[in-house]
Amino acid sequence: MFSRHFSNLMASPKKKLQGLVAATITPMTEHGEINFSVIGRYVDYLVEEQGVKNVFVNGTTGEGLSLSISERCQVAEEWVTKGRNKLDQIVIHVGALSLKESQELAQHAAEIGADGIAVIAPFFLKPWNKDVLINFLKEVAAAAPALPFYYYHIPALTGVKIRAEELLDGIQDKIPSFQGLKFSDTDLLDFGQCVDQNRQRQFAFLFGVDEKIFASDQQLLSALVMGATGAVGSTYNYLGKKTKQMLEAFERKDFSSALNHQFCIQRFINFVVKLGFGVSQTKAIMTLVSGIPMGPPRLPLQKASREFTDNAEAKLKSLDFLSCTDLKDGNMDACS
Residue 53, SS3? Predict the structure, then answer.
């Protein structure tokens, strides 16, 4: 059973998005402009230091909905350009409140050579049932029919409470390019039913609880047991290597080691969640760990406090958390 779900989990073949997917941060200058100059370094860091070769661009972590359409296109282009021959898959989030804007972003993603697109439900004028939501998604997918299409299910932020299990029923008949689900919700019953009722389909079931709720890797082991084929998360930017150790242990059925790795990750996540953990804090931690300046978030988000950064750094050191990763004060070993 597990081998069917997780064979080659750490690889990311072109035709199926699986394994770890980093929800990318959008680097900014102190003046709130996008700092395109560091994205090349960012790509190299993910690949060489974290071993993560799939990315999800312009999502929640990337402040996609706080960027203009032009900026979103530029960010997408930069990731595709700098990631060429280095990254396995680059999925662009193209969701927007406007159908026309989503279609424009989808078409642009296809033109620049992205590997897939993802869409959240519109969340101001909301779809009120499954059929209305699918009609919206269908029109976006049709703007880039050759690209794999993923639904980004994140009801806590969109307020669209249509269950993913219900949405997936017959979705490929209406959206032929549909390839899977980024499931950013804590309802593991819904997630499990998505997997159980679609066993014959080669869908990607990507677990990705948004960091505003919980960090995605905090619950990842439970999702793996239920049939997740991969995961999308902000913490894989700097905890990718540690999380891969958990996936590898799970794949070889060393569940005791997998659980130890999960608990190790949770110690840090639990600590920062209590301090207040979101996009701003993710940017601060990534800057601290990678040495790449991610800058502040865009308003209305506020920059993480110095107190948060100092506390996060101290916790990372106390856990001996990151192996082969340079912090500003030196190297640290992995949790045992």
Answer: coil
CB atoms within 10 A of CB 82: 18
CB 239 within 8 A of CB 322: yes
Q: Mind telling me the catalytic residues?
A: 152, 182
- Nearest partner of 64 among 29, 105, 99, judged by Cα: 105
> Treating both helix axes as pointing N-terminal to C-terminal, what angle do 255-275 and 306-318 enclose, rounded to 10 degrees?
160
Tell me the two tokens of residue 193: 């039913």
pTM, two decimal places:
0.89
What residues contact 96, with CB distance under 8 A and at least 6 apart?
65, 69, 102, 105, 122
pLDDT tens for the chain, residues 1 to 336: 333 344 344 443 456 899 999 999 999 999 999 999 999 999 999 999 999 999 999 999 999 999 999 999 999 999 999 999 999 999 999 999 999 999 999 999 999 999 999 999 999 999 999 999 999 999 999 999 999 999 999 999 999 999 999 999 999 999 999 999 999 998 999 999 999 999 888 899 999 875 544 455 567 888 899 999 999 999 999 999 989 999 999 999 999 999 998 888 888 888 888 888 899 999 999 999 999 999 999 999 999 999 999 999 998 888 776 443 444 443 333 343
Structure tokens at 168: 């997936």
3-state helix, strand, coil in the chain (%, to 5): 45, 15, 40
Token pair, residue 57, equals 């661009």
Query: Hey, which residues does 327 pair with through a beta bridge?
Result: 330
Residue with tokens 């080659």: 8
